[in-house]
Design brief:
The complex is a heterodimer. By secondary structure, chain A is an alpha+beta fold. Chain A contains eight helices and four strands. Chain B is of the alpha/beta class. The chains are: A alpha+beta, B alpha/beta. The structure holds flavin mononucleotide, iron/sulfur cluster (SF4) and FE2/S2 (inorganic) cluster.
Chain lengths: 176, 452
């Protein structure tokens, strides 16, 4: 049985109170972010069912939302999910070279995960960082003005990290 | 130097904190509105200012506000659109990161004008680090008595919340945003009813862009008439432009409406010219949804007049030879760029982001992506070009929300202005196999050698 730890549960309850009574379903997306962060970086059916129970809505209402939004993973991903922006402004600044470089270094293609479960390489659409292109996102961090050398330094740094851990934490939501 | 209204205090150390922001005159608009003005008087100032929505459509804000239904006993909502996902656009992020209190202040003053007691900032999920920054600013505003019950000792109370999305461009469309805020898939609603009548939780709701709401602060402080003196014609005030692509100085610039595009592009105060001093090939000035223009038509209208950064001047020539100011997402292309590859990239984006509710959009965007993919990879046929024009025409105007149009326009405009480049991809498939086919020799040179 999955369930939030006490702190996250308290946080989830606080988030629910931000919406009018009877409109607790509004808290679904914020709470799915919490769930994904707490339960291994993806949303299993079990996790989604738990969230449905928490919000007193039908499981299908959670599935249809989780499957609509690109930030929710319905299958397990690597500990570091590397998301490289591929849209025009980044492309004009060489994003294709960055993807090719990452692909070579990690020995995987776009959409794949390394055998050790450490890295997943993904391309995504414009992340609002076009003035500092090319760029990628890992966890909640933006890495901008990328060069192959910068990417190599990042890979070194990430080898010992788990980006899921920093993705959504309690300090993103204020105490009220 | 143009006038700065939003980014005036950008350089002040610590401007992201409440103390410093307040010392620079922050929250004066809240004091003025609540102590000296009625809600309707605030709406009146916004009307007089001529402010037009900064999210892309340019709809007059004061008029939008005056449409808000006010049935007694029914709550009203103000929702800030901070979804910012239009490719090329990163101005809202900049504003929220650098001066978060400006948005918070604008939300309070605007909510007061609309009589909303709850307001939400819907921010794209990927901007999670900004949630923290905004929540801190909101906390500080509560502590200072600008949010919460009986603001400044008045009868007026307001609660303000940040709500993250989870990755979906379509949630920037205001009714999809409201669906998403209600915890559903981001499927745009059929209109009418408009949000002003039935929006969030079926209550009257105003949805405005981050920059629009921030602009309410200087408007209330200086008065609508003074604000309207800045700019040209019906493009009043200042506009944030996020400039990217192949320019020397990418970034966010606050310009006075009416700045000549040539000055914006080439002066060192703004873009600083084209990267590596290469030739400018094309510009998409208002985010990926607006028509692309070749350099010549961008700098000067078809009638030979210098183009200005304003709603009217950029649109001069309509879809034949003009474009749009849109969201202010300015994308410059130098001579190395391939327009077919760029168009394929946009088509892939719109296909990926279509919510799938209407078949012309769902099927049409996928079809356009496929045809553009084969053209760009040297596997296209000559009639593919007209096929694309035909698909674009069939999507346009036949969908629930404007994403369909937004997907169709860039394709139609690219073919209108760069047809020879599309034909080149069909005629010389082996020459476009290398993804960087125009990097060494720009198409303008190839054109002289092979096609003419
Ligand atoms: C597909 C689509 C995406 C949009 N994305 C955004 C967006 O990210 N931010 C925004 O402010 N407006 C966006 N809009 C425009 C909104 O629907 C709406 O017009 C705007 O939020 C109104 O605010 P304004 O009048 O202050 O501009 C989008 C519209 C469409 C059709
Ligand atoms: S036009 Fe496209 S995005 Fe808009 S409602 Fe229809 S299918 Fe969805
Ligand atoms: S195109 Fe990559 S961040 Fe905008």
């Amino acid at each position: 049985m999955v369930s939030f730890n006490d702190d996250t549960l308290a946080l989830a309850q606080r988030i629910i109170r931000r919406y009018p009574e009877g409109k607790q379903k509004s808290a679904l997306i914020p709470i799915l972010h919490l769930a994904q962060a707490e339960f291994g970086g993806w949303l299993s059916v079990e996790t989604m069912d738990y969230v449905a129970g928490l919000l007193q809505i039908k499981p299908i209402e959670v599935y249809e939302v989780a499957s609509f939004y690109s930030m929710f993973n319905l299958t397990p991903k690597g500990k570091c999910l590397i998301e490289v922006c591929r849209t025009v402004p980044c492309w004009l600044k060489g994003s294709e070279d960055i993807v090719a470089h990452l692909s070579k270094r990690l020995g995987i293609k776009e959409g794949e995960t390394t055998k050790d479960g450490m890295f997943t390489l993904k391309t995504v659409e414009c992340l609002g960082s076009c003035g500092t292109a090319p760029m990628l996102q890992c966890g909640h961090e933006y890495h901008e003005d990328l060069t192959p050398e910068k990417v190599d330094l990042l890979l070194e740094k990430w080898k010992s990290e788990d980006s899921r851990k920093v993705y959504v934490s309690n300090d993103f939501f204020r105490e009220n | 130097m143009g006038k700065k209204l939003l980014l005036e205090h950008l350089g002040v150390e610590g401007i992201h904190t409440y103390e410093v922001y307040r010392r620079q005159g922050g929250y004066r608009s809240v004091e003025k509105a609540i102590r000296e003005m009625s809600p309707d008087a605030v709406v009146e100032e916004v009307k007089k200012s001529g402010l037009r929505g900064r999210g892309g459509a340019g709809f007059p804000t004061g008029m939008k506000w005056s449409f808000l239904a006010k049935p007694p006993g029914v709550p009203r909502y103000l929702v800030c659109n901070a979804d910012e996902s239009e490719p090329g656009t990163f101005k809202d992020r900049y504003l929220m990161e650098k001066i978060p209190h400006l948005l918070v202040e604008g939300m309070i003053t605007s909510s007061f004008a609309l009589g909303a007691n709850s307001a939400y900032i819907y921010i794209r999920g990927e901007y999670f680090y900004l949630v923290k920054i905004l929540e801190k600013a909101i906390d500080e505003a509560y502590a200072a008595g600008f949010l919460g019950k009986n603001i400044l000792g008045s009868e007026y109370s307001l609660d303000l919340y940040v709500h993250p999305g989870a990755g979906a461009y379509i949630c920037g469309e205001e009714t999809a945003l409201l669906e998403s805020l209600e915890g559903k898939r981001g499927n745009p609603r059929m209109k009418p009813p408009f949000p002003a009548i039935a929006g969030l939780y079926a209550s009257p709701t105003v949805v405005n862009n981050v920059e629009t709401i921030a602009a309410v602060v200087p408007i209330v402080n200086m008065g609508g008439e003074e604000y309207a003196k800045i700019g040209v014609g019906k493009s009043t005030g200042t506009k944030l432009i996020s400039a990217g692509g192949n320019i020397k100085r990418p970034g966010v610039y606050e310009i006075e409406m009416g700045l000549p595009v040539e000055e914006f592009l080439f002066s060192d105060e703004y873009c600083g010219g084209i990267e590596k001093d290469l030739e400018l090939k094309a510009v998409v000035p208002g985010g990926s949804s607006v028509p692309i223009l070749p350099a010549g038509l961008f700098l000067k209208t078809a009638a030979g007049e210098a183009r200005l950064m304003s709603y009217e001047s950029l649109a001069d020539g309509g879809f034949v030879s003009g474009t749009m100011l849109g969201s202010g997402g300015f994308i410059a292309y130098d001579q190395r760029a391939c327009i077919v590859r760029s168009t394929w990239n946009y088509a892939r984006f719109y296909h990926h982001e279509s919510c799938g509710q209407c078949s012309p959009c769902r099927e049409g965007t996928g079809w356009m992506e496929k045809v553009l993919h084969r053209l760009e990879h040297g596997e296209g046929r000559m009639h593919d070009i007209d096929l694309l024009v035909d698909i674009a025409r069939k999507i346009e105007g036949n969908t629930i929300c404007p994403l369909g149009d937004a997907a169709a326009w860039p394709v139609a405009a690219a073919i209108r202005h760069f047809r020879e480049e599309f034909e080149y991809h069909v005629k010389f498939p082996e020459r476009v196999k290398d993804p960087k086919h125009f990097h060494h020799t720009p198409f303008s040179k190839i054109r002289q050698a092979h096609l003419v």
